[in-house]
Every structure is written in C-alpha cells, then in structure tokens.
Amino acid sequence: MSEINVDEHRDLLLYVLANLKNRQLRSWLTILGIVIGITAIVTLISVAQGLDDAVKKELAAFGADSIIVTPSINLGLGGSPGLSGSLDTNDLQVVKRTPGVDPARISSVLAASVTLGYKDVNISTMVSGVDTDTFSKAVEGLVVVDQGRMLKPGDSHVLVVGSAIAKETFGEKVGLNTGIDIAGEKYRIIGILKASGSALGGGYDSDIYMPIDNARDILGPSVGPKEITAIEARTLNGADTEEVAKRVNQRLLVKRKVTEDNKDFSVMTSKSIMDQVGAITGLLATFLGGVAAISLLVGGVGIANTMFMSVMERTREIGILKAVGARKNTIMEVFIIESGIIGLGGGAIGIALGFLISAGMGAVGVPSKITPELAGFAVLFSVGIGMLAGYFPAKRAAELQAVDALRQE
C-alpha cells in the first residue's frame, strides 16, 4: 500500500482514486446504478419541461389581450365527450358591449365538420366559419397571412388555410386560387397563413376559415339560425385582460341565468390556460421525477452495499492507517469521498445520456428540454446520494479499533 499524508486533501483524493482504480469492475457496476437513475430523471423531467414549454409557446400565439368564450367542455364523465350547452349571437352582443372589449375586434365562430375534396383526395376535417367583417381584426397580430389575403366583407365560397393544409394535407402543395370541393360546392383558396413553427404541430397551421354564412349553409338545420360555437374577442389597448374576462363572465352568468356552479360556458384567456397547463405539467414533472428517483435510490443502495464490502475487505488497511496516525475523521473522509466520486461519475454519465436521449426525442418531434437547473440538480443529487450511501460504511470504518483491524487477515 502506498504511503499517504492524511493531512493533505490532494493526497487523500489520489488515494481514493487509486482504490477505485484497483476495483474497476465493482466501481463501474456501482456507477451503473446511478447512471440509470440519473438518466431516467433527466429524460423524464426534460420531457415534462419540454411539453410545458411547447404548450406555453402555443399559448403565446393566443395573444395576451385575447378572450375566448366557448360552451363548457364535457370530458365524457357520465356522458359523451364534447361541448355542453351552446352559444348564440345574443351572447356575442353581451360580450361586445362589455367594458374593456374592443367592439371592432370581436368575431363569432361556427365550427363545421366537412369533407375537403381535391383531385382524388378526400379529407374529413373541421372548418371555422367566421364573421368576414371583423375576424381579420380579431386575430390581427396573431394570424399572419403569408400568401394572398384574409377574409373581407362580401366574401363567399372562399377559404383561408393554414400552412399545413396548403403543404401537407392533400399529399401535395396547393396554392392560391386552388379549387376545393366542400359539400358539393367549389371553394377557392384566397389566403395561406404563415407557419407558426409550433413544436406540437398546433397554432393556426391546420386551421381553415370560411365566411360564417357558408358554414351555416353547410350545417343546414343541424344548427339554429343564431347558434355559434365560440366568440373570439380582443381587449382595448391598456385594458386588464383578466379583469375584462371577469366582467364578461359575470355578464354572461346574468344573461344565461346560471351560476358559477352550473354555468354552461367557459371564458378563457392566455393566462388562465397557462395557469391550468402549468399546474398539470408541474404534477407530471413531480410524478415522473418520483418514478425515476426510485431507480436512483436503488443505485444508492448499491453504493452503500459496495462501500460496506469495501470496509470489510480493507479492514487491515484501515488498521494500518490508524496505526500511522490517521484520525477517525480522515478515515470517514476516505470512504465518503470515494462514494461521492462514484455518485459524481454516475451523475455525469447519466446527464450525458439524458442529453443524447433528449436530443433524439427532439429530432422525432417529442418536446424535450434540459435546463442548467435540471443538470445542476441531477449532479448534486447524484453526489448527495453517493455521499449519503457512503456515510454509514464510513462511520463503521472510522470506529474500528486499530488493534482489532490489524488482526484481520
């Protein structure tokens, strides 16, 4: 055994590294347990963070001054999934007259399920019928026309489509003035929207807009003459969107003769949606992190087992160290540093693998994001687990009596 100066931290570290080198196979097997745990934590939490970022990016396009009113959403508990209740043009007027709402930037929306026909391709999808005189202002700054123009008053049998519809839906690109068959009638594309670049493939890329009168004709008697699917509104400059949304909610409660407990509509802003999404993704990150932490704890048990075995195998060596003047604290430091290095090595490799897996998921379209905070937490956590796992074996080694230790063969 090489001589060491127990008062020098540098020599202590070299001594620990030499011991790890002499037990390479066991050291690597122990490190592997930490690698698996840290890789799992980094990968799963990065997915949760990536999903949170992607959704928030989607909602950023929603507009900080936007308010959307829809019928309440039924998730299918005790009934069929879908919208419960309905809105009508009287609700639109209530929203329009609410203080803080910009009356020039509000539009009703009527969603219709249609079959789009182009050449020999038929696609079933949803289209949005909108007010041609106000819709362009209601989505100004949120929806950007890349080619052609937006809908305007007097338009009929025309479409404005998202970039995904123009480039992918029919298996080939369709351009301006392309004729699309809907319900036995020909509609002409007059505008193509700029791609949103959304990680989730959402935004306005798959949207299709037509004049609301055409949507009513397509739906026929299945909808009432005043029925609408949603109301899109923008607030006046300087208005507090959340306060305006509260006013809209209160006025609709009165108009529809319902209370908060049984209301059949929803008033949404970007902030309210972000708060809900943030709560969900936060719970998701906590759950996934907890699942991954279990494997890391298993790795910690592996370190503790390895360190206990190391103490047993090196009992005589510990006795020699004590005989030459090594203190209890020094003996503890040897084993705690050793287990900490195992944790650090496993953490570093785990983070590297997590980065690679995260990059691979990003390449195939799965939102994933590794932040410096996540990487730093993973390193500290792995080192902490390692040192904690090494504490009790180190304590046992430090309490060995030199005479008893030297008697061991």
Describe this structure in words.
The longest helix has 44 residues. By secondary structure, the protein is of the alpha+beta class. The protein is 53% helix and 20% strand. The two termini are 15 Å apart. A hairpin with a 2-residue loop joins strand 4 and strand 5. The protein has two domains: 180 residues, no CATH class; 178 residues, no CATH class. The N terminus is likely disordered. The chain is elongated. The chain contains twelve helices and 13 strands. Helix 8 packs across helix 10, helix 8 runs parallel beside helix 11 and helix 10 packs antiparallel against helix 11. A six-stranded mixed beta barrel has the order 4-5-10-7-9-8. Strands 3-11 form a two-stranded antiparallel ribbon.
Name the beta content range.
15-25%
Describe the sheet with the most strands. 6 strands, mixed, barrel
Number of helices: 12
Secondary structural class: alpha+beta
Q: Please count the beta strands (DSSP E, at least 2 residues each).
A: 13
The percentage helix is 40-55%
Spatial order of the strands forming the largest sheet: 4-5-10-7-9-8
The ordered H/E elements are HHEEEHEEHEEHEEEHEEHEHHHHH
**Ranges with pLDDT <50 over ≥5 residues?**
1-7, 75-83
Number of domains: 2
- Cα gyration radius (Å): 32 Å
- Principal-axis shape: elongated
Overall mean pLDDT stands at: 80
Distance separating the two termini? 15 Å
